[in-house]
Amino acid sequence: MGRKGYQSPARKLLSWVRKQSKKMKILLSIVTAVTLLVTLKLVVHDHNYFFVVAEAIHLIGLLVLIYKLTTLKTCSGLSLKTQVLTAIFLAVRLYCSFLMEADIHTVLDLITLVATLWVIYMMKFKLKSSYMADMDNMPLYYTIVPAAVLAFFVHPNTSHILINRMLWAFCVYLESVSVLPQLRLMQNVQIIEPFSAHYVFALGVARFLGCAHWIIQVYDTAGAYIYLAGRGYFWIPTVFLAEMVQTFILADFCYYYVKSVMSGQLIVRLPTPV
């Protein structure tokens, strides 16, 4: 009886945020992002770990998809085109990583690529009847061609052969836009079931960590990191921009995801496009 009408602090906060103006919501988002960045900077001393954690979170998101495909026997709400783009940039990055680094990133990329290929196989052959092909309607060349053209002109200036430097740039640029077909599909559907939502949210968290690395590096070097010697004057600024673009692309969905979770809803509902 005494708990009737009780609202948790999270729900009270969400209710308060809902009542704010659009400008206030933007300001709150910026304050939240800055707070997270400052916390990461103070807690994590080696900022290169951000990439390792980001890759691990991406893999966790894929494991959520694998669980969905094996238990629910459906791939509804998932974009096959995003998975194909993911497989492409992972394969290219794995090749480049093997030649240039051969470290923990290489291992994580290999595992993630295998998991992505398995998801593609299940969607294309085993669960084809549940694939929303008509909703997954963003042409692949919208992302691949611009990434390839940009990589041709803007790539790292290192001791590796030119084609490998271009391939490395290509996978970076393609990764930044690989989620667009998935977001396009979700905008078409508007109602996102939990497992697909968890996967996309994991991508959002992973991209935020990657973006945090660049922001903190630029801050720590007072901007000098952008023009790091030996990397080319346009390469790092372009990578930084690509990370920012992908983070902002996913930020809107992450907002609605958190909103749904705080409201106790399992399904994420996106607003109708204007």
Automatic annotation (TrEMBL):
Lineage: Eukaryota, Viridiplantae, Streptophyta, Embryophyta, Tracheophyta
Source domain of life: Eukaryota
The protein's name in its UniProt record: ER lumen protein retaining receptor
Residues that span the membrane, as ranges: 26-44, 50-70, 106-127, 139-155, 197-216, 236-258
Keywords carried by this UniProt record: Endoplasmic reticulum, ER-Golgi transport, Membrane, Protein transport, Receptor, Transmembrane, Transmembrane helix, Transport
Membrane topology label: Multi-pass membrane protein
Family stated for the protein in its record: Belongs to the ERD2 family.
Main location: endoplasmic reticulum
Cellular component aspect of the GO annotation: endoplasmic reticulum membrane
Gene Ontology terms for molecular function: ER retention sequence binding
Subcellular location(s) per record: Endoplasmic reticulum membrane
UniProt-listed GO biological process terms: protein retention in ER lumen; protein transport; vesicle-mediated transport
One matching Pfam family: ER_lumen_recept
